[in-house]
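so my prof wants the structure for this chain in the tokens format not the other one, which i didnt know existed until like an hour ago. anyway here's the sequence
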Amino acid sequence: MPPADHDTPREIEALIDLMARLPGLGPRSARRAVLVLLKKRGALMAPLAQAMAQVALNARDCVICGNIGTADRCAICTDDRRATGEICVVEDVADLWAMERAGAFKGRYHVLGGTLSALDGIGPDELRIPALAARISAEGVTEVILALNATVDGQTTAHYIADSLSSAGVTLTSLAQGVPIGGELDYLDDGTIGAALRARKRF
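here's what i got, hopefully its the right format
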């Protein structure tokens, strides 16, 4: 907890400390955010506190895919129109939400809950990799799309999953990597340019 100002009540300092633990917020940013909330207690702070209390009470992980919702099975897993035989594997819920914002994928998802990392002691059993194999046979999956981040741990995890599913009789694909729409070559790093060149297609 940051050193308490003798003029600041402990309850407010505790709130600042909690806010400072959020990604992207340090002690100073957290203090500014709390001051804004305090200035707008009726219009912002009270509704925010109520919404957070409701989410804390009702939010749960989907027992099938690992998405976050308010029921044991999320809206995607209970939508029969999404039963396309395709499962898109992502690292975390933020990636799932990003895919949904794009609106390009109409199948179902599988959230791993992270990536393999020997340094952090995260192995296959700490992730939802065994559950993925079980879903393939149970749901008649024909294609598994590995939409993992292009990091060392992400690609290590993708290769591990590919090896694990080599005898499952499914098609394994991954997202194309390379030049983003609107991107200029001069501003791209060498790895991105190399990936784009390897993933080139007929014009």
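also thought this was worth mentioning. The beta strands are 60-61, 68-69, 86-90, 108-111, 143-146, 171-174.
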